[in-house]
Design brief:
By secondary structure, this protein is an all-alpha fold. It has 15 helices and no strands.
């Protein structure tokens, strides 16, 4: 059961990262449908894979290595040359260039615009680990509802809110989705006689979204669509994609490319934007489909390259064993 579960999760992550890349490249007429679910999908998957730890210090340390070390490494790799280019062309000041990486979140733009997800996801993980270990399920449910209401209130009454460092304000919207993924893990093995209902609802969601462009997410900027309706719409799509991923995962041949993309999803997330921007701005490749495939190909190449070296796995993939091996810090031996 565990192998099967991992298989379809990797397949689902592969599908998800393809929609993320496409959402950043294709025109809004297509992208708005992808934005409806692609980031909620990854928070949902994160909740499904979430394993609480009573030792919060150990959990904090491990997740810091897994998420924040690659975050800093990719910032150095991507942000520095981008900012040098912006400063030299007069589009950015040195002061802003120094402050942006400290604030993170929506303050990061251009090549690093997608980095907001990592810090927001890290905060969601840490907060959920605290709640699951310290608070009853009933209270957590109430807190999740309150969290959603707060996110909608910020969106409604503070439309020009600049955001908190690391996009901490988006945690209010992301945390309930993460928790739903965690709850889904407990229901995942139950027989589903009425799964077809979700595909009927999916058709309704597509039609509704076609006539209601507001039914979409832009989580980075704190825009959460139509309160509760967009969340419901997103979850319908997520559940349907889970069922599709399970079907694909049955065939090792069909699932292999998706699994490869899923395994490399974080590296693809970091690399696809600079690749597609360079393709557009430096090589004048206007065709979005061409940029989509170029971004995927180069990002996968970057993944295989980084994965082939211990230092690449340590710094860019957050591998703690490789970090210990490369840097041989005695104090890391107790982590």
């Amino acid at each position: 059961m565990n192998t099967s579960r991992i298989g379809w999760v990797d397949t689902l992550k592969g599908i998800g990262i393809l929609t993320v890349v496409a959402g950043h490249i294709f025109p809004n007429s297509i992208a708005r449908y992808l934005f409806l679910f692609h980031m909620p999908l990854f928070f949902f998957i994160g909740g499904f894979l979430f394993k609480p730890s009573a030792d919060w210090k150990e959990y904090l340390t491990k997740k810091s290595f897994h998420l924040l070390v690659p975050y800093v490494a990719f910032l150095c790799l991507i942000y520095v040359p981008y900012e040098i280019k912006e400063i030299l062309t007069g589009r950015e000041t040195i002061a802003k260039g120094l402050v942006r990486p400290l604030l993170g979140g929506r303050f990061l733009i251009g090549w690093t615009a997608v980095f907001w997800y990592v810090t927001c996801f890290f905060l969601v993980q840490q907060l959920m680990n605290f709640l699951v270990n310290k608070v009853s399920k009933k209270i957590i449910g109430l807190l999740m509802f309150a969290s959603l209401v707060i996110s909608y209130a910020i969106n409604k009454f503070l439309p020009h809110f600049p955001g908190l460092p690391w996009n901490a304000d988006v945690v209010f919207a992301a945390l309930p989705i993460f928790y739903m993924g965690y709850l889904y893990k407990g229901m995942e093995g139950e027989p589903g006689k009425y799964k077809w209902v979700f595909f009927v609802l999916l058709a309704a969601v597509i039609v509704f979204t076609y006539y209601n462009p507001a039914n979409t997410y832009d989580m980075k900027t704190g825009s959460y669509g139509i309160p509760f309706v967009t969340l419901f719409s997103s979850l319908v799509v997520v559940v349907c994609l889970i069922e599709i991923a399970k079907i694909i995962a049955v065939s090792s041949f069909a699932s292999k490319p998706f699994n490869e993309f899923g395994t490399a999803s974080m590296v693809i997330m970091y690399l696809h934007q600079p690749v597609q921007f360079i393709a557009l701005e430096q090589f004048s490749i206007l065709n979005p489909l061409a940029r989509f495939f170029i971004a995927l190909a180069v990002s996968m190449g970057g993944y295989y390259l980084l994965n082939s070296f211990a230092i690449g796995r340590a710094l860019f993939m957050g591998s703690l064993p490789d970090f210990k091996k490369v840097f041989r810090r005695e104090k890391l031996a107790t982590v």
